[in-house]
Each structure stands twice: as C-alpha cells, then as structure tokens.
Amino acid sequence: MTFPLQPGDSIARPILHTLIGGRLNGRISPSKTTTVISLFSSPGTHDSQYDGWTGQHFHFQGEGRGDRDQSIRQGNRAVAEHALSGRSLRLFAVAPGSQVRYLGAYRLDPDTPYVRVQLPVIGGPAHPPRTGYVFRLLPENGTPAPSGVPVVEPLLAHTAVREHDLAVPFRPRPGEERGRKLTPAEQEAERLLKDYSSYLTQTGHDIRRYAVTPARTLLPLPVDLLDHTANELVACTGSVARARVLAAFGELLDMRRFFDPTPRRVMLAPSMPHPDLVDLCASNDITLVCRDGEGGFTRVEPASTGE
User: Fold this and answer.
1) pTM for the complete prediction?
2) How many CB atoms are closer than 10 A to CB 165?
3) All structural domains of the chain
C-alpha cells in the first residue's frame, strides 16, 4: 500500500482511520487492515510531556493509564516490536479539533529503542511517581525534520549539570504533573526557598540553582540550592513529616556526588523535625536550617546534636 499522505499534510483523524485503519482514540493506534502503526503526539499535555525533536530523534512517550506504571504491552509492545512484525511507524501531531498533521515515517533506534522515565500520577500529587517509557524514533529516509514540535534534550552518554534561573518557581519539579495546584507542603517549600535565598543573598552569599541529568536518562533532577560561598548543597522539605524529611535526606545523599568540590549538606525545614530525624541527619553530617521566628534562620550543626 502507498501511504496516502506527505509530511506536513493535515487530515481529520476519523478520515485517516478510514484510509489506513486503526482505532480512533489513543496515542498508539495499530491497524488491523494495514501494516501501519499510527502514533499521535499532543504537545503540552501530560500524555506527551517528553515528546519532541532532539535534532536526531523524536522522543515519543508511551501510553498507559495515568494512575499506574506503564508496561511494554498492547500499543507499547506494538511499537517496541514493530521491526520484528514488519510494521511501519507513522507519526502525527495532534492539532485543534479533530485534525492531525502528518510528520513522517519513523523507526525505533536499534541501539537504544526506549528509556524508562518518571511520570506523575495524574490528579494524585501525594502519590509516588510512576514509571513510563519514552521511545526514541529515527526518521526513515525521505522524512524531513519535523516542524512545529517541541525541541527536547537528547539522551546523553554523560551526566549534564546545568544552572537554572533562581526566579523560576521551585515547585512543582520536573516529572511532576503540570498545571496542578501545589500541595500545602510544596507551597511552604516554595516560601522557604525564596526566603532563604533572599537571606543568603543579603549576607553576600553566591547562591545558584542547578538541574542534574544523569547519563542515559531524560529527567533532570533539580537541586534546590547550591551556596557557593559556603560550599553547601541545600535540599528543602516543606513539612517535617517523616516521609518528607526522608525525601530531602535522600536528595542530599544523591545530589552531592555531582559537584566538585564536594559540598556540605544542608536540609532546610519549616521547623525542627522529630529528635529521631534530627539524630539521623546528625549521624550523616547534615546541617539542619529552620526559621528562627525573627525573620531569619537558625542552624543546627551535626556536632551540636550529640550528647
């Protein structure tokens, strides 16, 4: 069968499926009447938050329910095994209304066909992130670079550390649901980080924000603050609930290895955590910083918590 569209052509999706088969809904639509697997990217939606052109690959997020991990089955399996089954991948960008725009024919990169990523639980910011997949598509011969699509970062073989603008809100973080209302703990973390940033700046400290993308991953991991003057890595928790404190604790253990010289670790909290958690921080050489009630901040150094 000769494919009926050229890259750049637009068509109503219901008409498209009458021509090449496949289901009317969903991001991945394998046809039962042809060898075509149609892929539909909707930039700006949570289903397509990783979608975009890197300059060499088109990253296409897998499909699945918004409240559970994705798996390589059904549509995702059809994409993963398209070469084995002799099927072609045809990529479309969803336009307003029922229109879709054809971007061209693609194939999976045989070396790294897909990577696992972190996805938010839609409508459930309190829930742990879920696992998803991003397919790495290469254009077939004759397919031009796609236009009118997001430009995204490529998959790198090395770890990338990039500075971020201090003026951009700290929450929500990369990989979390976009456009949602912040939780009370996130709102408090936002206030804490802004106030602590101003406090350090007023005392002459050089503070910056970073995002670290480890090698062979796509999700940048945010670093709340790095105080270059004191050489301190800061992770903030907007609540002293145990789970929140442990999340900040884990962030400090994780992020420290990416900076040279190795920074000291500081946990910024709205108040002093439970003594057991204070001891945990002290035993791991983590300084606690909390509000002092007078518009400033107080520090609890690891050495000062001992008996």
Assistant:
1) 0.86
2) 7
3) 10-139 (2.30.280.10), 160-305 (3.40.1350)
